[in-house]
Amino acid sequence: MSDRSVFVYSEDLLKYKFSSHHPFNQIRLKMTLDLLKKANAITDQDIVPPRPATDEELLLIHDPNYVEAVRQAGKGQLREETAEGYGLGTEDTPIFANMHEASSLLVGGTLTAVDQVMSGKADHALHLGGGLHHGFRGKASGFCIYNDSSVAIKYLLEKYKVRVLYVDTDAHHGDGVQWSFYDEPNVCTLSIHETGRYLFPGTGNVNERGQGKGYGYSFNVPVDAFTEDESWLHAYSNALMDVAEFFKPDVILTQNGADSHYYDPLTHLSATMKIYREIPKLAHEIAHKYCNGRWIAVGGGGYDIWRVVPRAWALIWMEMTENSNCYGSLPDDWVQYWQEKSNVTLPREWEDPENLYPPIPRKEEITEKNKLTVEKALYPIHQQKRTREHMKE
Questions:
Q1: Which of 101, 122, 142, 345 has the highest Cβ tally under 10 A?
Q2: CA 96, 101, 102, 106 torsion-angle sign
Q3: Using CA atoms, how far apart are residues 312 and 131, in angstroms rounded to an integer?
Q4: CA of 247: how far to CAs of 49, 212, 267, in Å?
Q5: Considering Cα of 127, then 129, then 134, then 140, what sign does the dihedral take?
Q6: Within 10 Å of residue 91's Cβ, how many Cβ atoms?
Q7: pLDDT of residue 84
Q8: Half-sphere exposure (CA, 13 Å, Cβ side) for 10?
Q9: In what order do the strands lie in the sheet with 124-127?
Q10: For residues 145 and 92, what is the distance between their CA atoms, to the nearest angstrom?
Q11: What SS3 state is found at 168?
């Protein structure tokens, strides 16, 4: 595989900031790029700046009244009761100055990645500022104001007339994207997430399969709390390979939330860096097998910004560029620089130690439960296969 990859970034992406105490902190973008630079894994020539999305592009998904409300809120001109109706000014999604401009740039960054790939300038594009998968047509939700992935998918459908496979490995269900395309047969959504029994947004059940012409193109694998690497990767690899073979996409868009890790403060899974090495590997393989290499990757959740996110996200770029310099020690100068700013001890290796956490008491039960969930999620595909084989006999 000989790939040209681009990294969409500018310091302006850090302006998407709710407050200094909010768990969503875009300094993780800067930390990831700095890690790649200090590992000699990226050059300035690889970096493409994002552009703001136009109102017309935002309106591919979002309601005009909502876009205007976000614009007014960012100027301090939206009444509190009006804001609440749009999901703005809440504990999750507080209002901040110029929020429309900051949010539009995140969307535009994902559109920049799309155009780089679809115009043939790059095979792969990584925009870690994107992945805000909870945003709805007329409402902010779960730290997400505008839904860049939904806008990008609609843009892909309208401008490039392609079939899109959206793969979401964030610990939270990719609800906003799923509902945007729930009746669209040219978009297939696959979300592997912690069960909504314990976690926001509470959706993403196996029986959410789409509706109308989109029925059968929505796949959800809700794994149990405390799921570990082996069980998580079994779910991911089986689901992605079967769904990709079933759907045969023209382009793959992956959302790479890094919040399934044991250290993440907002979730209840027990994964380690092992899954973040494998997630982009399989996505890369699928991109070349079905999509002529076309792969757009965005960020998403990830709230242990010091110990988890920079390593997990750097591994996506390492995979895109087939760089194997991501084993053993992290660059000393990166660790020293960021350790001064961190309130926790930074890791010194790309991998996690084997004894990261105490043994999980219900491991066998969780593993078995997850296997059954995968079987239920993929049942329609397997049933279809069996029917075809039966007809051949």
A1: 122
A2: positive
A3: 15
A4: 32, 17, 30
A5: negative
A6: 7
A7: 95
A8: 14
A9: 47-48, 5-8, 124-127, 295-298, 251-255, 164-168, 187-194, 218-223
A10: 10
A11: strand
Is 134 known to be catalytic?
Answer: yes
CB 150 within 8 A of CB 127: no
User: Around Cβ 349, how many Cβ atoms within 10 Å?
Assistant: 13
At 261, the amino acid letter reads H
HEC secondary structure over 6-18: EEECCHHHHHCCC
- pTM above the 0.85 mark? yes
Beta partners for residue 188, in sequence order: 165
209: exposed, middle or buried (C-beta count within 10 Å: 0-12, 13-18, 19+)? middle
| Number of neighbours of residue 101 by Cβ within 10 angstroms | 15
Peptide bond into 201 cis (omega under 30): yes
Listed in sequence order, the residues at least 6 apart from 174 whose beta carbon sits closer than 8 Å to its beta carbon are: 133, 149, 166, 168, 189, 191, 193, 204, 255
Q: Mean pLDDT of residues grouped by 10 in the chain (393 residues)?
A: 83 97 97 98 97 98 98 97 96 97 98 98 98 98 98 98 98 98 98 96 97 98 98 98 98 98 98 98 98 98 98 98 96 98 97 95 96 97 80 70
Residue type for 226, please? F
**Which of 144, 127, 125, 124 shows the shortest CA–CA distance to 136?**
144
Which of the residues 100, 124, 133, 134 is marked catalytic? Answer: 134
Question: What token pair was written down for 336?
Answer: 């020293």
Rounded-to-10 torsion of CA 22, 24, 27, 29: 180
DSSP state of 156: I
Helices and strands (H and E) in the chain: how many:
12, 8
Per the CB < 8 A criterion, the answer to whether 254 and 169 are in contact is yes
Alpha helix stretches (DSSP H) within 11-134: 27-38, 55-58, 64-74, 80-85, 99-118
Q: How far apart are CA 143 and CA 34, in angstroms?
A: 24
Instruction: Measure CA of the first residue to CA of the last residue in the chain; give whole Å.
Output: 38
Q: Residue 163 has which token pair? A: 């079939």
The rounded distance, in Å, linking the Cα atoms of 244 and 167 is 10
Task: Check if the beta carbon of residue 269 is closer than 8 Å to that of residue 240.
Answer: no
Give me the torsion for CA of 264, 145, 161, 212, rounded to 10°.
Answer: 90
Residue 261: the pLDDT is: 98
The amino acid that residue 130 corresponds to is G
Nearest by Cα to 196 from 219, 178, 175: 175
